[in-house]
Amino acid sequence: MTRRPTFPARLPIPAAVIPIRRGTGAPAQPVVSKTTQASGLGLDSAAVRARMVRKLAAQGIADSRVLQAMGEVPRHAFVDSALVNQAYEDTSLPIGLGQTISKPNVVARMIELLLGGQCDEHGRLGRVLEIGTGCGYQAAVLARVSREVYSIERLRGLHEKARANLRPLRVPNVHLLFGDGMVGFAKGGPYAGIISAAGGESIPSAWIEQLAFGARIVAPSVMTGGAQALVVLEKTTAGLKRSVLEAVHFVPLKSGIA
Ligand code: SAH
Asked: Where, per UniProt, does this protein localize (predicted)?
């Protein structure tokens, strides 16, 4: 791996010129000191991402396809410049219009669960549907483990933001749709996986209809008592297999567009 020299720690570089490097593996040693990371100055994004990936692995994310994709997508390119120095922390971040981008750990966990469904011989998912594009970050990660990604957002402002965020990264296999994801997107189906970044009372029937046999839906869902949990629904010829996993906190799944 080639390494660009990092900027001197004291040089005040605006967020816009932080070097973005993609397609690199984890460096042999951590190269980012606490100071650089905390200040956001001299941020070498590939090195900080590699550190995030090591943390994800230590937290139990085991799928190399997920770890590689998380190491490649520049999360800082999806958040406001004021939040850039938190982009690789294990925290959710505001993305505008009252919505949030999930913690890296939750994104990785959900994609890992999705990959447990229907993959091709190269270990890739076919067509995937994402509900809740938000800033477009998760769509970019999904694009690295799937053939095609259809991603729906109900808020026009965020749909446009995601478009602007993804444009410079050139991710040709992501198709952004503006609309109500509760009804899915029948034209793109049947899907090898459906993933939701917003939690409803139940899994909409349209998603189940548009899911391929052998594939999974991974979505937060409100349980009795009001708290959300991560739900995995697997569609088999024998019926639906539902697993309720850990507690999560997602923004609500809402109907209609705005
Ligand atoms: N995956 C996103 C996370 C966005 S937060 C990212 O990486 O940034 C969840 C998003 O779901 C919000 O933007 C919210 O507006 C959207 N959402 C909620 N209900 C929806 C629906 N019915 N259809 C489409 N998007 C929806």
From this structure: Cytoplasm
